[in-house]
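Before a colleague's protein record goes any further, I have to sign it off. Would you go through it and say whether the fold makes sense for this chain? Take the sequence as given and treat only the tokens as open to question. The record follows directly below this note.
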Amino acid sequence: MKAGKSPSTKKAPLAHGLKEDILELIAAEGMRPGDQLPTEPELAERFSASRSTVREALKLLEQDGLVNAIQGRGRFLSALGSMSIERPVTIYESITEMLEGLGFTVTNAVLSVTEDTADEHVAHELGLEPGDPVIRLVRLRLGNDQPMVFSINIIRRDALPGPIAYRDWGVSVTSALEGHGHSIDSSIARISAADLPADYARKHDLKKYDPWLLVEETCITRDGQRVLYALDFHRSSEIAFNVIRRR
């Protein structure tokens, strides 16, 4: 007897698409934690979907912790659900992705790119030996032509082979690394308030933006390799990060 596809196999793509539609609706409506979602019939009518597909999409949102279901009352947006719209610090994304997500038109000013060697701290962060070769990239990230992030990226030299003079350093480093088979999917980060290093602040006339929100980050690929150590100074008057605290 020929086996057929199970109903869940057919329904899953529709449900996953509807899940994203509901998240877009949450963002468009400016919903906040604790706000009640439209009912299943209302969502079915709004998106011209079947009740079963709506129910499956809502279950996916519940499984992700984005929506809380309360028996007899309905479904409500969780704190995590609102954070997924506001781009929480717990999600890894490149500086370019973050700024574009905040609505900025992004340009990158490459201030310097040099061959360097790892000191003890960098070697520890990247799993290297002191003196191993690295690339040191310094850039100013602009959003709508205004300084937003001052970045010092230190990259394992073997992760981006070839002469540095022939590479476009204005693109996302995350994308460049991915092009060489190093797909970053997580990072370990420390966030603190800091002034920009005095030599950079003076040279590039950035002292007036002190203090910055410094994100010191070691980026890790899917196979566990530490390929990028970043010091990203975010302009604190324009950029903030959201976190969830749970008891």
Strands lie at 67-70, 74-77, 106-117, 133-143, 146-156, 184-194, 212-221, 226-235. The chain has two domains: 7-86, 95-235. Confidence is low (pLDDT under 50) at residues 1-12.
